[in-house]
Design a protein that fits this description.
The complex is a heterodimer of chains A (173) and B (590).
Chain A lengths: L1 H5 L8 E2 L4 E2 L3 H26 L8 H26 L1 E4 L3 E7 L3 E7 L3 E7 L2 H5 L2 E8 L6 E7 H17 L6
Antiparallel strand pairs in A: 2-3, 3-4, 4-5, 6-7, 7-8
Helix pairs in contact in A: 2-3
Chain B lengths: L1 H12 L26 E2 L4 H12 L1 H14 L5 H19 L1 E4 L3 E6 L5 E6 L5 E6 L1 H5 L2 E7 L10 E7 H12 L3 H8 L30 E5 L8 H4 L1 H20 L7 H12 L2 H28 L3 E5 L3 E6 L4 E7 L3 E9 H5 L2 E8 L13 E7 H12 L14 H28 L5 H23 L1 E5 L21 E6 L3 E8 L3 E8 L1 H5 L2 E8 L5 E8 H11 L7 E2 L8 H7 L10
Antiparallel strand pairs in B: 1-2, 2-3, 3-4, 5-6, 5-11, 6-7, 8-9, 9-10, 10-11, 12-13, 12-17, 13-14, 15-16, 16-17, 18-19, 19-20
Classes of the chains: A alpha+beta (173), B alpha+beta (590).
Chain lengths: 173, 590
């Protein structure tokens, strides 16, 4: 059992099939820019601290070097991996998403339980014409988020989900 | 309840951007055709209660004002003016608050400068909470809080602070045990009479008749005075102690008293300096434990004295408790989705537990946190007794839970030992190379066996089960064709320092999340999270082997079944066999 549990998944093991659709390929650069902006702020703070000779953090050049190396690794790996992982689908009776990169998360919400569909475009998202769609249920936990959808795809998806949800009866709790 | 959803979906339809899903009840106007009900004031006794309460609230400020007034001598009498202003504030609240209860809505108008008009349609009312602080009790007054169970944080609770105590009972019965048909016709909202997750024996499908005043009630449990000996094991006094210390510290800081100048403190310090360190530690621990125990006992008595759990034939459970401030919470049984048993380690060692209700409309946060309590810290037997009473079967209390297997067990040990071992190694290296003292490293190593014990207990407690409803199609929810059989129950248990065991009705599960961290992926484990509109909103089943996790997901949300591929044919794995045989996870071999 020890070896069976730690061995990689064989094709005989049941698994969740990946959702049908990928998000827009532009999302790679969208995630890259968003992360890069964060790293830039972080590095700038460190440079300012170095120039003004603040005591925190100690060992300015070393810490900055490590930060830059981690940032490069993160920016090289994260957007592509996230693009590979992040998928979504509207099946006959459910919305199904997969998200994450190191930590992965599958979320399934039956259409009958859906309460709202929100679309949202941040400043960086607007630069890439990308939309973030959030599907909520009556639970405060577990909204389904699809980040990096093409604007038109997002609009179509929102309409479809809304129509499907309206067609179903019940109070969705 | 079908109305707000439709509205929200329409909002989404119109562009669906912003957060336009405000409190569903807030903007509903009363039905114009309803017979006009007079606006009523709160009880006259509040004319006394409000000023006194405001005075108590403003005591620090009044003290300052009185001192300022005295120092000036010739100036205006600030103390008097302040007192009058505070009393006027209290009276103005009584003057400006009006309420009325029509057949369709409960309305409250209040506020002097900023007028507020709160409206709650009566078919949205899910909880009625009645409480009274000591002054109100003397005057036979109560505060009634009406909960609609909205998930929105900024939604305001509807409060009627100051009703005659005698009216509270009939009012609660009237608000909760309504006739749905009448309400539906009045609001123009089609009220779907549903019995979602009909927990409990009253699964007849017929809505209970409106309860008459003074209805008979069944007592399920009442406080046994011997239970207060469980109080020290809850360690609830630690928090009280911390608050008192914090408060004392602030007083010392603000009054700039040097505590070492006080004779009692001075003598204590002198005494402590005269004795060896280990005696100090021993004495300090003994004093600390005594104080925490006493505070816990006091807290237990204050919160739970007079505790009674009753069931009303109208379909509500009622919890009343409190020594000085009394509190009575009603929970509609059709809002109940399960129960949550909590056993902190110490309480578990002395054979105690406490129980909470998992219900929609009862948030486990903020001021409403206490309102989900079903049983205070009490013997396990009493708790399981109430569990089976509330759930309608003893089956859920003593069900055997499926273990999660060796990978999950290994993960418990890696997580418990990994951190402490790393710390120990680093400290050891520091003492070896950087000449740090050896004591921290030794302490860190001493923690290792404790961590191992913790990991063992954490694995032993980890488990889950799905108990299928044995009563068959008779309890099928005909109003809810999408739901599966009513009565399927998910049981999940985890934790060691704080062991939690939740029993959740599967029809109340409204979504499923499967979470897999990098390390979980390497050990073939998944954390299954059932999301729900009730209680904590999410209930976790951590570290389930992948095949069992998927079978569980399909059990919780049938819509996810066709997303699972592989493993159906020719696989001898135990969990996939279960997947074939109707997903009965309770039979998963250990």
């Amino acid at each position: 059992m020890d070896t069976a549990a730690s061995a990689p998944m064989t094709d005989r093991e049941p698994s969740l099939r990946p959702p049908a659709n990928q998000v827009s390929p532009r999302a790679i650069w969208y995630w890259f820019s968003r992360a890069a902006a964060g790293w830039l702020v972080f590095c700038t703070l460190q440079i300012v601290s170095w120039v003004l000779d603040w005591p925190i953090p100690p060992w300015h050049p070393q810490v900055l070097t490590v930060t830059v190396l981690v940032a490069i690794a993160h920016l090289a790996v994260m957007p592509r991996l996230r693009y590979r992982v992040h998928r979504w689908e509207l099946t006959d009776d459910a919305v199904y998403t997969r998200a994450g990169w190191l930590t992965q998360e599958w979320r399934i919400a039956p259409v009958t339980r859906i309460q709202t569909v929100d679309s949202e475009r941040g400043p960086i998202g607007r630069m890439f014409h990308l939309t973030k769609v959030t599907v909520t249920t009556a639970s405060a936990a577990g909204p389904l988020v699809i980040d990096g959808l093409d604007e038109q795809v997002a609009a179509g998806f929102a309409t479809e989900v809304t129509a499907a949800a309206q067609a179903s009866r019940g109070d969705a709790t | 309840m079908s109305d707000p959803i439709r509205q929200n979906i329409e909002t989404a339809d119109l562009g669906g951007t912003g957060d336009e899903t405000g409190p569903p009840a807030a903007d509903q106007q009363p039905d114009a055709t309803a017979p006009e009900q007079p606006w009523r004031r709160l009880a006259n006794g509040m004319l006394l209660v409000e000023p006194v309460r405001e005075l108590i609230k403003f005591i620090p400020m009044l003290v300052v004002l009185i001192f300022a007034g005295r120092a000036g001598e010739s100036g205006p009498p600030w103390g008097l003016i302040g007192t009058v202003a505070v009393i006027a504030l209290g009276i103005s609240r009584w003057l400006t608050t009006r309420y009325r209860i029509t057949p369709t809505v409960v309305e409250v108008r209040r506020g002097l400068l900023q007028r507020k008009h709160l409206t709650v349609p009566r078919d949205r009312i899910r909880t009625v909470d009645v409480s009274a602080h000591p002054l109100q009790r003397v005057l036979h007054l109560v505060k009634v809080e009406i909960g609609t169970g909205t998930s929105h944080q900024r939604a305001e609770a509807l409060k009627l602070d100051g009703l005659p105590a005698a009216t509270a009972g009939p009012l609660r019965a009237e608000l909760l045990h309504r006739v749905p048909a009448a309400v539906g016709s009045n609001t123009g909202v089609p009220v779907v009479v549903k019995r979602q997750a009909s927990i409990g024996p009253a699964v007849t499908g017929d809505e209970p008749p409106p309860a008459p005043d003074g209805e008979p009630e069944t007592e399920l449990l009442r406080l046994n005075p011997r239970w207060i000996w469980y109080a020290p094991a809850t360690l609830s006094g630690v928090l009280t102690g911390a608050v008192i210390i914090g408060f004392g510290w602030r007083i010392i800081n603000e009054t700039s008293i040097d505590p070492t100048q006080l004779s009692a403190v001075h003598h204590t310090l002198r005494y402590l300096q005269g004795t060896p360190l280990w005696v100090d530690l021993l004495q300090g621990t003994a004093v600390g434990l005594t104080v925490v125990s006493l505070l816990s006992l006091a807290g237990y008595v204050l919160s739970y004295w007079g505790y009674r759990l009753t069931r009303h034939p109208g379909g509500t459970l009622q919890v009343s408790r409190g020594l000085l401030t009394t509190r009575a919470t009603s929970i509609e049984e059709r809002r109940l989705r399960g129960v949550h048993r909590v056993e902190p380690l110490l309480l578990r060692l002395v054979g105690g537990a406490r129980l909470q209700a998992i219900a929609t409309g009862l948030r486990q946060r903020g001021s409403e946190r206490g309102s989900s309590l079903l049983v205070p810290p009490a013997p396990l037997r009493a708790v399981t007794g109430i569990e089976s009473e509330v759930l309608g079967s003893a089956e859920f209390g003593d069900a055997t839970l499926a273990e999660h297997g060796p990978a999950a067990r290994r993960r418990r040990y890696t997580r418990a030992l990994g951190v402490s071992a790393t710390v120990a190694v680093v400290l050891l290296a520091l003492s070896w190379f950087a000449h740090w003292p050896i004591l921290p490293a030794l302490l860190a190593m001493a923690v290792l066996p404790i961590a191992a014990l913790l990991a063992r207990d954490r694995y032993r407690n980890l488990g889950h089960a799905i108990i299928r409803d044995a009563s068959g199609p008779a309890t099928q929810d005909l109003d809810n064709p999408i739901g599966n059989a009513v009565g399927d129950m998910l049981i999940t248990r985890m934790g060691s320092l704080l062991r939690r065991r939740s029993v959740l009705a599967v029809p109340g599960v409204i979504g499923v999340t499967l979470h897999q961290s990098f390390f979980q992926r390497r050990s073939g484990l998944l954390t299954v999270i059932a999301t729900t509109a009730a209680g904590a909103q999410r209930y976790e089943i951590p570290d389930v082997p992948q095949p069992a996790a998927l079978a569980l997901a399909a059990q919780l949300v049938p819509e996810s079944a066709h997303l699972i591929i592989g493993g159906q044919i020719g696989d001898a794995g135990p969990a996939t066999a279960l997947l074939r045989d109707g997903l009965d996870l309770s039979r998963l071999p250990a």
